[in-house]
## 1
Amino acid sequence: MKICNPLKRYSLAFGILVLLLSQSTPVFSQESPEKMEWFKDAKLGIFIHWGIYSVNGIDESWSFFNDYISYDDYMKQLSGFTASKYDPEKWARLIKSSGAKYAVLTAKHHDGVALWDTKASDLSVVKKTPAGKDLVGPLMNALEKEGIKKGIYYSVLDWSHPDYDRNTRETFRYKNDPVRFQKFVDFNFKQLEELSSKYNPDLYWFDGDWEHKPEEWKSAELKAKLLTYNKNLIINSRLGPGYGDYDTPEQGVPVTRPSSEFWELCMTMNNSWGYQGNDHAYKTPSELLRIFVDCLHMGGNLLLDFGPKPDGTIPEEAENILTEFGRWTTKHESAIYETQAGIPDGHIFAPTTLSPDKTILYIYLDYKVNESLAIKGLKNKIQRVWVVGNGTKLQAREVGKMYWSSVPGMKYIDIPDNVYDKDITVLAVLLDGPVDLYREKGQVIESN
Ligand code: GLC
């Protein structure tokens, strides 16, 4: 059996190149900076991987690419994809109630099966599955009704398309047949123009760019074309370096703050993007909320993924996680949306964020503190401390402040047992002005 981890085997060299390039070519918004406003404040998005792979409950597209199943057997799943209980309004309500502000649906994964009635190919759930109808439009409408921004995932590579032959991908790569590859690129343009004109998404989440260079995908032309449909369109970073508006770290929570101004961590709830009934390795709601808070602390978004079943029902575990997110995001609304990245690590043993004017420091505790919470190196005076979503006022005291030294004292906050949230407790610390931190070396007598 040929097992090839594609990210290792095909794109390691290219990946390194991309990494190097992306460090010298930061991802930035080339159009109006205002278009990123909603994205910056959204904080939570929901990713939906829905496709025929949910029928057997196997890896989306990769399962045939890696020869875990033959291509023909993979495609037999078409006959089991019914969408018979698809309730896009229910999906949109659940997404909204989780506190998410945008959602991204896989309109077409690497397997090439379109979830809408594409005229560019016959390979769609409309023409080839018992579902027999457009699945993209109804969700986009339902999201719009709920005030949720509409995102479409689209794989630029297509392992089913006759002009993108997956069997020759290793050696042929259309290097010697640009005419044929151009036919494929035209097909991508056609599908994307269909999606833009039918559904006018707020965001495109591209994927699969690693098999070709941006010039081969015609990324610049594609982006320009899509912007003619919506000048405020946001594009993720997977059309090649320099074309995206934001960065997309995947699965691993960043340890240090990503360098790009806008970023989003995409993450599965268990270990699978699509529905896999055999994958019970769900992170708990509390664990996922901690990941979410890590993103907030570093000024990014979380795009949390679930995979619906072939009939369109949402797995119970996913529904439960979204409901638990809703409980926490509703209670802590003021400490989520419109916050910005918090203060550097080292001042508090906890993630933090700041209000837009930087006068409120939010502190996120996923543990019960021992006696009191300590804040080091905070020059500001604390005006008031309260427990977000609970209101209890807490006492703060400063200890060890020498009147003749500029080194701030230790600030301690006492937290009674009865104010803790079952997942993450949030404290709001109102300062006497924008946060002002002591970042020097800490000598008692400082030379001028
Ligand atoms: C990777 C995977 C793909 C998945 C995507 C989501 O690119 O190849 O299957 O859809 O991540 O971020």
Note: The chain has two domains: 24-331, 340-431.
## 2
Amino acid sequence: MQRDLVRRGRLSDDRTGEVAHFLSSMAADHRIADMDVLVDMAHLLMLERQGIMVTDAAQAIMGALLGFHRDGVPPEAYDEEFEDIHAGKEAALIARVGEEFGGRLHMGRSRNDEVATCIRMRLRDDLIALMEETNDLRGVLLALAGEHRETIMPGFTHLQHAQPTTLAHHLLAYEAAFGRDVGRLRDALVRLNECPLGAAAFASTGYPIDREMTASLLGFDRPMGNSMDAVSTRDFALEALSACAVEMATLSRFCEEIILWSSAFVRFVTLSDGYSSTSSIMPQKKNPDTAEISRAKAGTVAGAFTAALTITRGLPMSYNRDLQELTPHLWQGVTAARESVAVFAGLLRTAAFHPEPMAEEAAVGFSTATELADVLVREFGLPFRTAHSVVGRAVRKGALDLDTVEASAVEVAGISLCDRGLTAERLASALDPAVSVASRGICGGPAPAETARAITEREDALKDDRQWVAGRREAVAAAIGRLVTECERLCVHE
Ligand code: ARG
């Protein structure tokens, strides 16, 4: 029976196993099999409601589909002799309820709209989960920032000590970026949540189907407007992958810093053992492997996006089998992003940050020279460019003590700062990293009072984002719950 159905999906019998394997999407279809059963259920409910399928056939098929929904698609449906799960599952259905009934389910649709619907549904769940995982990471960052508002650390430009900042300020910079990532994922989710079902091969169908009904049963906002677009586009996958790739670019920067910070010559952080590995030869080693793998996953996700984009470019309308080749890249990219974000949140949550070496480094390399120049401007009347030259000259002489700064001011501008009231105490306080940080209290700066305000603001934004995602998750779950209930009701229908 199974052989017979496999054979019927082919032009002739002369296909080798090698070619069957080459053409089959079965390996990737494991990911959409559950969704495919839901798509079948919604389609069948609609066919019956529209009077396209007689009720006793609908009941028989629905009984089998509810079994697949409960227990999973049966193993024989995954035989690679079938082109895909859609064909394998139809064969399994016919084997259970007979062709007289089971052979009627594919009225008014094609695998082209079927697969596009399944992929959108699976991706919808993945994007919701990735947003939740990213929001959890943001929560970890905000909690850590709250603990480290007074933790002075060096800030860098060009990886050179630049100006002192705080760990909270640094963490909030990443939180802001991850907040935008959630925004991009949210946009992608809203645009993908339209239902291709009913587009059939591409030209829609002559059956009087109700596309609004299937779209709503499957938790979509609406059916897709154009049936050719519905089966041919994978722009929703490109958009999701690009949002993942952008997020991973940020995450990999953070990984790079964590790797640097955990090194013996920086010592800003110690990772917990659970997120570290040792060496098979060097017993003393503790390596930041989770951060390294996450950093590398950014390459995997960018590669998935590039592959998907390259596969779709230049394809004529409408469905082309090339599209099948894109789907595994989608799952690989989204999975890599999800795993990396979740693991990285755990890494951060369990890491120990070390304020002392951070504070020591904050004062290294004349990092408060900018603040001193600002003080010379604000309190001693120098133009900024002159103050910059005075302090720069003192730095080149190797000291920012009163004598050197005074001598530099005389040499650069013929001005005595001591005559204008500069004292050793005022100089020392201008050079204190904590004073420098505290003076940078304008919006977005590192001053502890400002980061306290920023944390409150970002916590509110995070709360809104969490609520939005929870609403989406609930809406999908409610739709699927209603679908299953209606399907069960059809089966008890007299
Ligand atoms: N397996 C195909 C895919 O993943 C879906 C089926 C469309 N196949 C076809 N021959 N029209 O894209």
Note: The mean pLDDT is 95.
